[in-house]
Amino acid sequence: MTSASRDRDLRSQLETLTTEAFRPELADVDRLPTPEIARLMNAEDASVAGAVAEQVPAIAAAIDAVAERMARGGRLIYAGAGTAGRLGVLDASECPPTFNTDPSRVVGLIAGGPRAMVSPVEGAEDSPELAESDLAALGLTPDDTVVGISASGRTPYAVGAVTYARKRGALTVGLSCNRDSALAAAAEHGIEVVVGPEFLTGSTRLKAGTAQKLVLNMISTITMIRLGKTYGNLMVDVRASNEKLRARSRRIVAQVTGADDDAVERALAATDGEVKNAILVLLAGVDGPTAARLLDEADGHLRAALSRAGG
User: Fold this and answer.
1) Which of 20, 25, 68, 94 is the catalytic position?
2) SS3 content of the chain, % helix, strand, coil (to 5)
3) Among 36, 68, 122, 125, which one carries the catalytic annotation?
4) Per-10-residue mean pLDDT, the chain, length 311
5) Which ranges carry the SIS domain (predicted)?
6) Which residue of 109, 205, 220, 237 pairs with 229 in a disulfide if CB–CB is 3.0 to 4.6 A?
7) Measured on CA atoms in the order 181, 204, 114, 127, is the torsion positive or negative?
């Protein structure tokens, strides 16, 4: 296929995508006053949550499958290009400080590697082979999950990642913003959040990017809830790596136990700052090593550990 024919083929593909559609009613938006443009953009963004809501059953099914595998030691791996890839890397990078996960448990892959986070890498998104290479380096297992992310649902890197992962026996999820996408078809769990044409034609960092961020928030957060990384809506596995998080840790222990500041400090000191362990020390009346053992026996679930201890 010649370069010209490839270009014609790609243009014909893009013309069928909702995310690439032109909005004639916005053709003179550059002539409007700034407050009016801001109001129009805000109104567009307000529709995103509704589009995500339509996909909640599919999202929930994917999350349950992800959590089941992660409970067996599997990893959650995001793969995408451009904005989609950056969103995956962002979500993965937030899991260690929020949920005290090992950085290897939730991984973000972006076409072109780390340099692509800030600069375009020519041709990277067009290579399914690059996705295969990136995933092969991780040594996929059947307990792993690969989430391909692509607003168009046709990006070769994302589709290639899901296709390769499925061949390796890993769980696969395809997150896109167009119906009947190649990405959803390639994955076991297809999530298609159709947000409609963008405010700026084809600029999928806007509504599509917002939708993808919302879904990724749900996937990682609810998976971690299922894995016992929270107690109610409290982040009891938070990693206290700075003063703000250390203060949050003390506050969480106090909220759960009702203990005074001195007791909270002693419990955290006895458990090397581990919030769940400190809560067990205070509520179950055990020492630090016993709290650690109880949590280990309960696979990290605080409620189960408290029940074992009679707390």
Assistant:
1) 94
2) 60, 10, 35
3) 125
4) 56 70 89 96 96 98 98 97 96 94 96 91 89 97 98 96 98 97 98 94 94 98 97 88 89 96 95 94 95 94 91 54
5) 66-229
6) 237
7) positive
